[in-house]
Design goal:
Number of strands of chain A: 12
Helix content of chain A: 10-25%
Oligomer: homodimer
Shape of chain A: globular
Number of helices of chain A: 3
Number of domains of chain A: 2
Distance between the termini of chain A: 40 Å
Mean pLDDT of chain A: 94
Chain lengths: 184, 184
Protein backbone atom coordinates (compact mmCIF):
# COMPACT_ATOMS: atom_id res chain seq x y z
CA UNK A 1 0.00 0.00 0.00
CA UNK A 2 1.19 3.52 -0.82
CA UNK A 3 0.72 5.81 2.15
CA UNK A 4 0.08 9.52 1.76
CA UNK A 5 0.99 10.25 5.39
CA UNK A 6 4.49 11.75 5.26
CA UNK A 7 6.99 13.24 7.69
CA UNK A 8 8.30 16.50 6.23
CA UNK A 9 10.27 17.73 9.26
CA UNK A 10 11.75 16.71 12.62
CA UNK A 11 12.98 19.06 15.35
CA UNK A 12 14.65 18.08 18.65
CA UNK A 13 12.75 20.09 21.25
CA UNK A 14 14.09 18.58 24.50
CA UNK A 15 16.95 16.13 24.99
CA UNK A 16 16.55 13.73 27.92
CA UNK A 17 18.58 11.14 29.71
CA UNK A 18 17.23 7.88 28.26
CA UNK A 19 14.91 9.48 25.69
CA UNK A 20 14.87 12.57 23.45
CA UNK A 21 11.70 14.50 22.68
CA UNK A 22 11.15 15.62 19.07
CA UNK A 23 8.40 17.48 17.25
CA UNK A 24 7.66 16.02 13.83
CA UNK A 25 5.96 17.93 11.04
CA UNK A 26 3.56 15.59 9.28
CA UNK A 27 1.71 15.96 6.01
CA UNK A 28 -1.66 14.24 6.43
CA UNK A 29 -3.41 12.24 3.69
CA UNK A 30 -5.73 15.20 3.03
CA UNK A 31 -2.74 17.55 2.59
CA UNK A 32 -2.99 19.38 5.91
CA UNK A 33 0.14 19.91 8.04
CA UNK A 34 0.20 18.83 11.70
CA UNK A 35 2.75 18.62 14.53
CA UNK A 36 3.20 15.16 16.11
CA UNK A 37 5.16 14.12 19.19
CA UNK A 38 8.06 11.73 18.68
CA UNK A 39 10.09 10.10 21.47
CA UNK A 40 13.42 8.59 20.51
CA UNK A 41 14.50 5.92 22.98
CA UNK A 42 18.24 6.14 22.58
CA UNK A 43 19.36 2.60 23.28
CA UNK A 44 16.57 -0.02 23.19
CA UNK A 45 16.95 -3.05 25.40
CA UNK A 46 16.41 -6.66 26.26
CA UNK A 47 14.09 -8.60 28.52
CA UNK A 48 14.52 -12.18 29.75
CA UNK A 49 12.12 -15.02 30.62
CA UNK A 50 14.40 -16.90 33.07
CA UNK A 51 13.20 -20.47 33.63
CA UNK A 52 14.56 -22.53 36.56
CA UNK A 53 15.18 -26.27 36.10
CA UNK A 54 11.90 -26.93 38.00
CA UNK A 55 9.93 -24.80 35.50
CA UNK A 56 9.39 -21.78 37.75
CA UNK A 57 10.10 -18.32 36.36
CA UNK A 58 12.25 -15.71 38.12
CA UNK A 59 10.47 -12.39 38.51
CA UNK A 60 11.42 -9.00 39.92
CA UNK A 61 9.51 -6.83 42.36
CA UNK A 62 10.46 -3.17 42.14
CA UNK A 63 9.05 0.31 42.65
CA UNK A 64 8.35 2.21 39.42
CA UNK A 65 8.10 5.98 39.94
CA UNK A 66 6.57 6.57 36.46
CA UNK A 67 3.39 4.74 37.49
CA UNK A 68 3.90 5.20 41.26
CA UNK A 69 3.53 1.57 42.22
CA UNK A 70 5.39 -1.66 42.82
CA UNK A 71 5.47 -3.89 39.76
CA UNK A 72 6.17 -7.56 39.11
CA UNK A 73 8.31 -7.76 35.97
CA UNK A 74 10.64 -9.96 34.02
CA UNK A 75 14.31 -8.94 34.33
CA UNK A 76 15.19 -6.35 31.69
CA UNK A 77 17.51 -3.50 30.91
CA UNK A 78 18.80 -1.09 28.30
CA UNK A 79 21.74 -1.79 26.03
CA UNK A 80 25.12 -0.44 27.19
CA UNK A 81 25.59 1.14 23.75
CA UNK A 82 23.72 1.26 20.45
CA UNK A 83 26.23 -1.25 19.06
CA UNK A 84 25.49 -3.90 21.69
CA UNK A 85 23.80 -7.11 20.55
CA UNK A 86 20.65 -7.50 22.66
CA UNK A 87 21.66 -11.13 23.38
CA UNK A 88 24.63 -9.68 25.29
CA UNK A 89 22.34 -7.24 27.12
CA UNK A 90 20.02 -10.11 28.03
CA UNK A 91 22.84 -12.28 29.43
CA UNK A 92 24.22 -9.38 31.47
CA UNK A 93 20.87 -8.27 32.91
CA UNK A 94 20.03 -11.87 33.78
CA UNK A 95 23.24 -12.23 35.81
CA UNK A 96 23.11 -8.79 37.44
CA UNK A 97 19.44 -8.79 38.39
CA UNK A 98 18.87 -12.45 39.31
CA UNK A 99 22.27 -13.94 40.18
CA UNK A 100 21.81 -16.71 37.61
CA UNK A 101 23.34 -17.34 34.21
CA UNK A 102 22.34 -19.57 31.32
CA UNK A 103 24.09 -21.31 28.42
CA UNK A 104 20.75 -21.59 26.63
CA UNK A 105 19.50 -18.10 25.76
CA UNK A 106 17.30 -17.91 22.65
CA UNK A 107 15.25 -15.09 21.08
CA UNK A 108 11.55 -15.43 21.92
CA UNK A 109 10.02 -12.30 20.41
CA UNK A 110 10.72 -8.71 19.38
CA UNK A 111 8.60 -5.88 20.79
CA UNK A 112 7.97 -2.19 20.13
CA UNK A 113 6.66 -0.40 23.23
CA UNK A 114 4.52 2.39 21.80
CA UNK A 115 4.49 2.54 17.99
CA UNK A 116 2.25 5.63 17.87
CA UNK A 117 4.97 7.97 19.12
CA UNK A 118 8.09 6.12 20.34
CA UNK A 119 11.04 4.27 18.74
CA UNK A 120 11.79 1.99 21.72
CA UNK A 121 12.33 -1.71 21.04
CA UNK A 122 12.79 -4.61 23.43
CA UNK A 123 14.07 -8.02 22.37
CA UNK A 124 12.68 -10.74 24.64
CA UNK A 125 14.88 -13.79 25.25
CA UNK A 126 14.14 -17.14 26.83
CA UNK A 127 16.85 -18.28 29.28
CA UNK A 128 16.65 -21.95 30.25
CA UNK A 129 18.72 -24.31 32.44
CA UNK A 130 19.62 -21.49 34.85
CA UNK A 131 22.81 -21.88 36.90
CA UNK A 132 23.30 -19.89 40.16
CA UNK A 133 26.41 -17.68 40.17
CA UNK A 134 26.17 -16.49 43.76
CA UNK A 135 24.13 -13.32 44.18
CA UNK A 136 22.98 -10.26 42.25
CA UNK A 137 25.17 -7.38 41.12
CA UNK A 138 22.87 -4.38 41.18
CA UNK A 139 23.82 -0.82 40.35
CA UNK A 140 23.19 1.89 42.93
CA UNK A 141 19.77 2.89 41.53
CA UNK A 142 18.42 -0.65 41.60
CA UNK A 143 16.39 -1.83 44.56
CA UNK A 144 14.71 -5.05 43.60
CA UNK A 145 13.52 -8.32 45.09
CA UNK A 146 13.53 -11.65 43.24
CA UNK A 147 10.77 -14.25 43.50
CA UNK A 148 10.12 -17.46 41.55
CA UNK A 149 6.58 -18.26 40.35
CA UNK A 150 5.08 -21.16 38.47
CA UNK A 151 3.67 -20.33 35.03
CA UNK A 152 -0.01 -20.75 35.95
CA UNK A 153 0.31 -18.28 38.82
CA UNK A 154 1.85 -15.71 36.46
CA UNK A 155 -0.91 -16.22 33.90
CA UNK A 156 -3.51 -15.61 36.63
CA UNK A 157 -1.68 -12.42 37.60
CA UNK A 158 -1.80 -11.23 33.98
CA UNK A 159 -5.53 -11.91 33.56
CA UNK A 160 -6.36 -10.34 36.95
CA UNK A 161 -4.41 -7.15 36.18
CA UNK A 162 -1.70 -7.72 38.83
CA UNK A 163 0.90 -7.88 36.03
CA UNK A 164 0.44 -5.03 33.54
CA UNK A 165 3.95 -4.35 32.23
CA UNK A 166 3.56 -5.02 28.48
CA UNK A 167 6.94 -6.69 27.82
CA UNK A 168 6.38 -8.94 30.87
CA UNK A 169 2.85 -9.93 29.85
CA UNK A 170 3.89 -10.55 26.23
CA UNK A 171 7.00 -12.51 27.25
CA UNK A 172 5.19 -14.82 29.67
CA UNK A 173 2.25 -15.34 27.29
CA UNK A 174 4.66 -16.09 24.43
CA UNK A 175 6.50 -18.66 26.53
CA UNK A 176 3.21 -20.24 27.64
CA UNK A 177 1.89 -20.41 24.07
CA UNK A 178 5.14 -21.96 22.84
CA UNK A 179 5.01 -24.68 25.52
CA UNK A 180 1.42 -25.40 24.51
CA UNK A 181 2.31 -25.57 20.81
CA UNK A 182 5.16 -27.96 21.64
CA UNK A 183 2.66 -30.14 23.53
CA UNK A 184 4.29 -29.59 26.94
CA UNK B 1 8.94 -3.98 50.85
CA UNK B 2 9.91 -0.42 51.83
CA UNK B 3 11.65 1.32 48.95
CA UNK B 4 14.28 3.97 49.50
CA UNK B 5 13.98 5.26 45.92
CA UNK B 6 11.94 8.45 46.16
CA UNK B 7 10.74 11.19 43.83
CA UNK B 8 11.48 14.56 45.44
CA UNK B 9 10.58 16.83 42.52
CA UNK B 10 8.84 16.96 39.13
CA UNK B 11 9.18 19.70 36.52
CA UNK B 12 7.30 19.99 33.21
CA UNK B 13 10.05 20.68 30.67
CA UNK B 14 8.13 20.33 27.38
CA UNK B 15 4.39 19.96 26.81
CA UNK B 16 3.42 17.89 23.77
CA UNK B 17 0.29 16.96 21.89
CA UNK B 18 -0.45 13.45 23.20
CA UNK B 19 2.35 13.35 25.80
CA UNK B 20 4.08 15.80 28.16
CA UNK B 21 7.78 15.56 28.98
CA UNK B 22 8.82 16.02 32.63
CA UNK B 23 12.11 15.91 34.50
CA UNK B 24 11.84 14.14 37.85
CA UNK B 25 14.29 14.65 40.68
CA UNK B 26 14.93 11.28 42.30
CA UNK B 27 16.62 10.41 45.55
CA UNK B 28 18.44 7.10 45.01
CA UNK B 29 18.70 4.35 47.63
CA UNK B 30 22.29 5.44 48.40
CA UNK B 31 21.14 9.05 48.98
CA UNK B 32 22.43 10.56 45.74
CA UNK B 33 20.17 12.87 43.69
CA UNK B 34 19.55 12.16 39.99
CA UNK B 35 17.37 13.56 37.19
CA UNK B 36 15.08 11.02 35.48
CA UNK B 37 12.92 11.40 32.37
CA UNK B 38 9.16 11.06 32.81
CA UNK B 39 6.60 10.96 29.98
CA UNK B 40 2.99 11.56 30.91
CA UNK B 41 0.64 10.07 28.33
CA UNK B 42 -2.34 12.33 28.79
CA UNK B 43 -5.25 10.07 27.97
CA UNK B 44 -4.44 6.33 27.91
CA UNK B 45 -6.41 4.16 25.55
CA UNK B 46 -8.01 0.91 24.53
CA UNK B 47 -7.15 -1.89 22.15
CA UNK B 48 -9.50 -4.55 20.77
CA UNK B 49 -9.11 -8.20 19.74
CA UNK B 50 -12.03 -8.36 17.24
CA UNK B 51 -13.05 -11.95 16.51
CA UNK B 52 -15.28 -12.75 13.52
CA UNK B 53 -17.93 -15.50 13.83
CA UNK B 54 -15.56 -17.83 11.87
CA UNK B 55 -12.76 -17.28 14.41
CA UNK B 56 -10.58 -15.01 12.29
CA UNK B 57 -9.22 -11.81 13.84
CA UNK B 58 -9.52 -8.37 12.22
CA UNK B 59 -6.16 -6.62 11.96
CA UNK B 60 -5.01 -3.22 10.71
CA UNK B 61 -2.17 -2.39 8.35
CA UNK B 62 -0.90 1.15 8.75
CA UNK B 63 2.23 3.24 8.37
CA UNK B 64 3.82 4.28 11.68
CA UNK B 65 6.18 7.27 11.31
CA UNK B 66 7.72 6.74 14.80
CA UNK B 67 9.32 3.49 13.64
CA UNK B 68 9.21 4.33 9.90
CA UNK B 69 7.49 1.15 8.77
CA UNK B 70 4.13 -0.44 8.07
CA UNK B 71 2.77 -2.37 11.02
CA UNK B 72 0.12 -5.01 11.51
CA UNK B 73 -1.80 -4.12 14.67
CA UNK B 74 -4.99 -4.71 16.55
CA UNK B 75 -7.46 -1.80 16.32
CA UNK B 76 -6.75 0.73 19.10
CA UNK B 77 -7.09 4.36 20.03
CA UNK B 78 -6.81 6.95 22.77
CA UNK B 79 -9.67 7.92 25.05
CA UNK B 80 -11.68 11.00 24.01
CA UNK B 81 -11.24 12.40 27.51
CA UNK B 82 -9.65 11.30 30.79
CA UNK B 83 -13.16 10.59 32.10
CA UNK B 84 -14.01 8.10 29.34
CA UNK B 85 -14.43 4.46 30.34
CA UNK B 86 -12.02 2.46 28.15
CA UNK B 87 -14.90 0.06 27.28
CA UNK B 88 -16.52 3.02 25.49
CA UNK B 89 -13.21 3.82 23.75
CA UNK B 90 -12.91 0.18 22.66
CA UNK B 91 -16.43 0.04 21.20
CA UNK B 92 -15.92 3.32 19.32
CA UNK B 93 -12.50 2.41 17.90
CA UNK B 94 -13.83 -1.00 16.83
CA UNK B 95 -16.66 0.59 14.85
CA UNK B 96 -14.59 3.43 13.38
CA UNK B 97 -11.55 1.41 12.37
CA UNK B 98 -13.14 -1.88 11.27
CA UNK B 99 -16.78 -1.16 10.40
CA UNK B 100 -17.99 -3.83 12.83
CA UNK B 101 -19.67 -3.64 16.22
CA UNK B 102 -20.12 -6.18 18.99
CA UNK B 103 -22.58 -6.74 21.85
CA UNK B 104 -20.00 -8.94 23.58
CA UNK B 105 -17.01 -6.80 24.58
CA UNK B 106 -15.12 -8.01 27.65
CA UNK B 107 -11.87 -6.90 29.32
CA UNK B 108 -9.01 -9.23 28.41
CA UNK B 109 -5.98 -7.58 30.04
CA UNK B 110 -4.55 -4.27 31.23
CA UNK B 111 -1.19 -3.08 29.92
CA UNK B 112 1.40 -0.42 30.74
CA UNK B 113 3.54 0.46 27.70
CA UNK B 114 6.87 1.49 29.22
CA UNK B 115 6.91 1.43 33.04
CA UNK B 116 10.51 2.69 33.27
CA UNK B 117 9.59 6.22 32.16
CA UNK B 118 5.99 6.51 30.88
CA UNK B 119 2.50 6.58 32.44
CA UNK B 120 0.63 5.24 29.38
CA UNK B 121 -1.90 2.47 29.91
CA UNK B 122 -3.88 0.44 27.39
CA UNK B 123 -6.89 -1.69 28.32
CA UNK B 124 -7.25 -4.61 25.91
CA UNK B 125 -10.77 -5.87 25.20
CA UNK B 126 -12.04 -8.98 23.47
CA UNK B 127 -14.90 -8.28 21.02
CA UNK B 128 -16.78 -11.38 19.89
CA UNK B 129 -19.79 -12.08 17.63
CA UNK B 130 -18.91 -9.14 15.35
CA UNK B 131 -21.75 -7.57 13.34
CA UNK B 132 -20.99 -5.52 10.17
CA UNK B 133 -22.30 -1.93 10.30
CA UNK B 134 -21.38 -0.90 6.76
CA UNK B 135 -17.92 0.59 6.46
CA UNK B 136 -15.27 2.35 8.50
CA UNK B 137 -15.46 5.92 9.80
CA UNK B 138 -11.87 7.09 9.82
CA UNK B 139 -10.65 10.52 10.81
CA UNK B 140 -8.56 12.52 8.34
CA UNK B 141 -5.21 11.36 9.75
CA UNK B 142 -6.06 7.68 9.51
CA UNK B 143 -5.02 5.70 6.48
CA UNK B 144 -5.47 2.05 7.26
CA UNK B 145 -6.32 -1.25 5.61
CA UNK B 146 -8.23 -4.07 7.30
CA UNK B 147 -7.40 -7.75 6.89
CA UNK B 148 -8.69 -10.85 8.69
CA UNK B 149 -6.23 -13.56 9.81
CA UNK B 150 -6.65 -16.87 11.55
CA UNK B 151 -5.08 -17.14 14.99
CA UNK B 152 -2.26 -19.53 14.01
CA UNK B 153 -1.09 -17.18 11.26
CA UNK B 154 -0.94 -14.30 13.74
CA UNK B 155 1.01 -16.39 16.24
CA UNK B 156 3.53 -17.23 13.51
CA UNK B 157 3.84 -13.53 12.70
CA UNK B 158 4.56 -12.76 16.37
CA UNK B 159 7.25 -15.45 16.72
CA UNK B 160 8.86 -14.48 13.39
CA UNK B 161 9.03 -10.78 14.33
CA UNK B 162 6.53 -9.61 11.69
CA UNK B 163 4.24 -8.38 14.50
CA UNK B 164 6.21 -6.41 17.11
CA UNK B 165 3.67 -3.93 18.51
CA UNK B 166 3.57 -4.87 22.21
CA UNK B 167 -0.16 -4.36 22.83
CA UNK B 168 -0.94 -6.40 19.69
CA UNK B 169 1.40 -9.27 20.61
CA UNK B 170 0.15 -9.35 24.23
CA UNK B 171 -3.52 -9.17 23.16
CA UNK B 172 -3.29 -11.99 20.61
CA UNK B 173 -1.19 -14.18 22.92
CA UNK B 174 -3.65 -13.56 25.80
CA UNK B 175 -6.58 -14.54 23.60
CA UNK B 176 -4.74 -17.66 22.37
CA UNK B 177 -3.79 -18.72 25.91
CA UNK B 178 -7.37 -18.21 27.11
CA UNK B 179 -8.75 -20.40 24.32
CA UNK B 180 -6.23 -23.08 25.25
CA UNK B 181 -7.11 -22.88 28.96
CA UNK B 182 -10.79 -23.21 28.05
CA UNK B 183 -9.92 -26.31 26.04
CA UNK B 184 -10.91 -24.78 22.69
Amino acid sequence: MEYKLKRVGRELVMPGKVIDFYRDTMELPDGRIEKWDYIDHKRGGACIVPVLPDGRILMIHQYRPAIDRETLELPAGARDSIQEDTAVTAARELEEETGYRSDKITLLLKLRSAVAYCSEFTDVYLAEDLIPIGGQHLDEAEEIRIEAFDLDTLLEKIYSGQIQDAKTAAGILAYSTRLYKEGK
